Amino acid sequence: MDKNKFALTPPMGWNSYDYYDTTVNEAQVKANADYMAAHLKSFGWEYVVVDIEWYSNDAGTVRDRFQYIPFGDIEMDDYGRLQPSPARFPSSAGGKGFGPLAEYVHGLGLKFGIHIMRGIPRKAAHMHCPVLGAKETADRIADPSSICIWNPDMYGVRGTEDGQAYYDSLLAMYAQWGVDFIKCDDICDSRLYRTEPFSGWEETRMLHRAIEKCGRPVVLSLSPGPAQIDRAWEYCKYANMWRITDDFWDEWNLLKAMFARCEMWQDHVRAGCFPDCDMLPLGKLGKGFGNGERETSFTREEQKTMMTLWCMFRSPLMIGAELTLLDDWTLSLLTNAELLALMEESCRGTQLIRTETYAVWKNKDEASGRICVALFNLDDVDREISVRLSELGESALEKAEEAALYELWEKEECGTVSGRIAAKVPAHGVKVYRMETV
Fold first, then answer.
1. Residue 335: in which H helix or E strand, if any?
2. Is 348 helix (H, G, I), strand (E, B) or coil?
3. Per-residue pLDDT averaged across 352-363, rounded?
4. Segment holding 339, helix H or strand E
């Protein structure tokens, strides 16, 4: 199964992490899926992703001490494969796994996804569990020297025939459940976390092979970042999306830094292969993290900048907010059809200019010829930003010398410009223009 024959455009959906941390339950997932189906599906949003620790029965019970409880109470089948906590996901009882919840999500016309950690549960290794389709038991395929430094649940898997059998059995189970999307963590080989050689490269290949065998088109997302640009070819060969940043939160310095990351990765965006800027921390966030629910710290201008950059670059879009609590303004950010059109398969984004105080991006639809230009103000004060038409690298515009502008956020005609586009842009804000030659 060729992974580049599905997910031809950047995946768009909702992920439970930014609001629920490790504690999301079935009722909450269904409520967010219901909202997506009613308000977002028609704009291209389709994935509903249950993030980390869905197999934990005691997740969040000692959040003041541990985000991931060492050797906690987890659900696992006889073959060492993690199962949903029945206390949190009642429909999984009786060995049904995520099958009933996936069926519910599919019934809404949406797709279902889960987070997994690289490797095999330590519990499975300690119990010497059999591995479906393998001669060796879990303790023999586990690599106890390969351990995630921030989550204590798993050992790495050895790159052997029996190690592959474990991943094959895992993906066969996920396919039976109806999983459409897997976010695999501790596998993107971020040098942020390690200096020693990383054992997860082979596990990425093992996952890829298992997906090919499972008979279901499953999108593979790799975390955490920042991914290594010198291994771009490998990410693109074996995965559909990979994080180019560490966990992204609602801080201006992180958003400003994303312009350099997108510049570095812009030539590696193509059908089935998407460098990932991480989730959109909009709306209500943080309820499961122990300090209570809060509003995003991004200003409205910063939120528009984030949405614009992600769409111009064509990053996957995953909403981090609790959807049922979205206000009208935030919903309008997520349903700007003209901006989301920049994500289409025939589009390509290019950063033309980046300085300390501003950046200019172009997004061109190769099929229709449509050109959009974004003027980003990276400064802390309002400023005028301009770009000459000749700098856009479009012969039609150079010859025309004039262009009619339409601003995508304000949804208004802005008249005709000659020679250059110029606008006063609010601090940390953006203007996005669709251009037509005159």
1. none
2. strand
3. 97
4. helix 337-340
Q: How far apart are CA 98 and CA 92, in angstroms?
A: 6
Query: Do residues 352 and 392 lie in contact, with contact meaning Cβ atoms separated by under 8 Å?
Result: yes
Phi, psi at 359, each rounded to 5°: -145, 150
Number of H helices, E strands in the chain: 13, 21
Cβ(125)–Cβ(136) below 8 Å: no
Are the C-beta atoms of 152 and 68 separated by less than 8 Å?
yes
Separation of alpha carbons 295 and 282, rounded Å: 8
Alpha helices in 200-299, H assignment, sequence order:
200-214, 232-238, 252-265
Question: Which is it for strands 420-425 and 358-365: parallel, antiparallel or unpaired?
Answer: unpaired
* HSE of 199, CA atoms in CB hemisphere, 13 A: 15
Global pTM? 0.96
pLDDT digits (tens, 9 = 90+) for 229-282: 999 999 999 999 999 999 999 999 999 999 999 999 999 999 999 999 999 999
pLDDT band at 1 (very low <50, low <70, confident <90, very high): low
Say which amino acid occupies 79: Y
* Distance from C-alpha of 159 to C-alpha of 315, rounded to nearest angstrom: 31
Tens of pLDDT, residues 167-202: 999 999 999 999 999 999 999 976 766 677 777 889
Burial class (CB in 10 A: 0-12, 13-18, 19+), 255: buried
Distance CA 380, CA 264 (A): 24
Using a pLDDT cut of 70, give the percent of the chain over it: 97
Cα angle 158-160-164, degrees, rounded to a multiple of 5? 90
